[in-house]
């Protein structure tokens, strides 16, 4: 049956990738869906040291290796947000913002999102002192005092990571001790830059435009104490208080417990035949990478008999060879740039295939001055040029075409007719932003990332000029979602500009808008929004302007 998948995996964290590996290796036709970015929550972890057989690895590298392994066995990847499922028929229908998909079996590896505690001031100072990702935002607190709220694995591990930047780290633990393994807790307890307060909770965070003070309470005695910064200084509060399962959209579809976690049997099957759960989204005692990959493997192998039975029942011929996945612009996570190369030979081969599918020619033009960043941009364009005739690379120096008030250096994406598409990068599009850059080209040249008719109409209805600045860090795993959302709108509406800035290179932006967390989005130099934004999130914001 054309268009029918044996298995659809929803989610690309370790559980989803493990399920994809096992299912594809069993010669199933497998599609893996992700709504934002490949890798899940583990990509914000700077160091994984408890995965058997691997002494130390960062979360992004680990999941990227898993993704490649799944692709090598034939799994396909697609960026799409799952909105609903129709489980009333034998062929399960997965409804996404990119269209409906059919499958015999589904693995729900939905993961979970960081939990907000709800203390006074948490929402107010989110992005301006209150943060949830040490990898993304730790560098913004260099030389400052930092408080870590939580006593689990994440709190202990990320507190140690934050000592690379912070002057001092204070961990606030509600319980009488850490709730993670002793070896992990000991690293935090014994670190010279870390102080721990047990049976303590945060009561309030306050300040002006930035954090200036915080109140804490001893749960046992009721005694309160206050931290105040020296005049003119600020500090950070990192919250690691667990996660909330991402299951709001499947209420009533499969059985959930009172906290919203998916209930499964020992084979990871839900109460609906052929629908399986895996990873942090499931009811379980331990939420770690090793248990997530175990869940994924169990779910996929349990699906083997179910899918085989459905093949026989529906008269589907068994596949003897796996179906090799194609490079997909809307589902591929690029390698991080290493060494002296911005674009590796492997990446160039993949880009050549993708660029060959462009519907229109696109030009990447660098507006340069004599700064070191400009020299790096010129090197980046030299590596990009010559990959395909569909992508032309040009360089313009300050004395040639640029005006005196034009901010330089910049990488501009031009349409086929030579006019600006609205996409600019005030950065070297490396690290996590390389994929955002490539997706930007894909959207300008066409066919572009699929969007729904409703989204296309909402973009078309933007009638006033909108300038969007997206401040990012190249180490941030959540920034690309916002960059791609803004770029997608700019590619469709000539009234919208989406300019991406590497905040490390533009400290004046950080100072002007009091940015202490990325991604940060500044709209028309007035409205400031923190946190990753999907296309729908951004459209909702723009419609209020």
UniProtKB/TrEMBL annotation:
<dbReference type="InterPro" id="IPR050097">
    <property type="entry name" value="Ferredoxin-NADP_redctase_2"/>
</dbReference>
<dbReference type="Pfam" id="PF07992">
    <property type="entry name" value="Pyr_redox_2"/>
</dbReference>
<dbReference type="InterPro" id="IPR036249">
    <property type="entry name" value="Thioredoxin-like_sf"/>
</dbReference>
<feature type="domain" description="FAD/NAD(P)-binding">
    <location>
        <begin position="5"/>
        <end position="296"/>
    </location>
</feature>
<dbReference type="GO" id="GO:0016491">
    <property type="term" value="F:oxidoreductase activity"/>
</dbReference>
<dbReference type="InterPro" id="IPR036188">
    <property type="entry name" value="FAD/NAD-bd_sf"/>
</dbReference>
<dbReference type="Pfam" id="PF13192">
    <property type="entry name" value="Thioredoxin_3"/>
</dbReference>
<protein>
    <submittedName>
        <fullName>Thioredoxin reductase</fullName>
    </submittedName>
</protein>
<dbReference type="InterPro" id="IPR023753">
    <property type="entry name" value="FAD/NAD-binding_dom"/>
</dbReference>
<dbReference type="InterPro" id="IPR017561">
    <property type="entry name" value="AhpF_homologue_put"/>
</dbReference>
<feature type="domain" description="Thioredoxin-like fold">
    <location>
        <begin position="467"/>
        <end position="541"/>
    </location>
</feature>
<keyword id="KW-0285">Flavoprotein</keyword>
<dbReference type="InterPro" id="IPR012336">
    <property type="entry name" value="Thioredoxin-like_fold"/>
</dbReference>
<keyword id="KW-0560">Oxidoreductase</keyword>
């Amino acid at each position: 049956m054309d268009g029918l998948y044996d298995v659809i995996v929803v989610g690309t964290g370790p559980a989803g990738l493990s399920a994809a590996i096992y299912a594809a290796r069993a010669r199933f036709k497998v599609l893996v869906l992700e709504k934002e970015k490949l890798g899940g929550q583990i990509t914000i972890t700077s160091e994984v040291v408890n995965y058997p057989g691997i002494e130390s690895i960062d979360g992004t590298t680990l999941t990227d290796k898993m993704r490649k392994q799944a692709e090598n066995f034939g799994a396909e990847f697609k960026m799409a947000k799952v909105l609903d499922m129709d489980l009333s028929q034998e062929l399960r229908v997965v409804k996404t913002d990119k269209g409906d998909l059919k499958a015999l079996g589904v693995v729900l590896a939905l993961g979970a999102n960081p939990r907000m505690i709800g203390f006074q001031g948490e929402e107010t100072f989110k992005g301006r002192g209150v943060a949830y990702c040490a990898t993304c935002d730790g560098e913004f607190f260099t030389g400052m005092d930092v408080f870590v709220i939580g006593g689990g694995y994440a709190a202990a591990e990320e507190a140690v990571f934050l000592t690379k930047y912070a002057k001092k780290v204070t961990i606030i633990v509600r319980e009488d001790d850490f709730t993670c393994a002793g070896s992990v807790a000991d690293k935090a307890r014994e670190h010279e830059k870390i102080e721990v307060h047990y049976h303590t909770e945060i009561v309030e965070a306050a300040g002006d435009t930035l954090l200036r003070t915080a109140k804490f309470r001893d749960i046992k005695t009721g005694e309160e104490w206050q931290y105040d910064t020296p005049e003119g200084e600020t500090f950070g509060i990192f919250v690691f208080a667990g996660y909330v399962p991402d299951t709001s959209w499947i209420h009533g579809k499969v059985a959930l417990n009172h906290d919203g976690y998916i209930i499964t049997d020992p084979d990871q099957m839900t109460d609906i035949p052929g629908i399986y759960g895996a990873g942090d989204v499931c009811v379980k005692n331990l939420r770690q990478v090793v248990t997530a990959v175990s869940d994924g493997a169990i779910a996929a192998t349990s699906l083997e008999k179910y899918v085989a039975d459905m093949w026989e029942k529906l008269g589907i011929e068994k596949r003897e060879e796996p179906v090799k996945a194609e490079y997909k612009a809307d589902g591929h996570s690029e390698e991080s740039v290493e060494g002296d190369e911005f674009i590796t030979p492997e990446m160039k081969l993949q880009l050549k295939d993708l660029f060959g599918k462009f519907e229109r020619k696109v030009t990447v033009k660098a507006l340069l001055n004599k700064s070191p960043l400009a020299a790096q941009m010129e090197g980046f364009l030299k590596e990009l040029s010559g990959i395909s005739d569909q992508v032309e690379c040009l360089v313009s120096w300050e004395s040639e075409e640029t005006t005196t008030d034009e901010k330089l250096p910049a990488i501009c994406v031009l349409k086929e007719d030579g006019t600006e598409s609205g996409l600019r990068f005030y950065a070297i599009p490396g690290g996590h932003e390389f994929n955002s850059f490539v997706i930007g080209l894909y959207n300008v040249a066409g066919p572009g990332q699929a969007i729904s008719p409703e989204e296309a109409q909402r973009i078309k209805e933007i009638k006033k000029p909108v300038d969007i600045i997206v401040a990012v860090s190249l180490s941030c795993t959540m920034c690309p979602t916002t960059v791609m959302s803004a770029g997608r709108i700019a590619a469709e509406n000539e009234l919208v500009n989406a300019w991406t800035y590497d905040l490390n290179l533009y400290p004046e932006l950080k100072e002007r808008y009091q940015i202490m967390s990325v991604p940060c989005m500044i709209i028309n130099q007035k409205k400031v929004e923190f946190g990753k934004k999907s296309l729908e999130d951004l459209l909702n914001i723009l419609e209020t302007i």
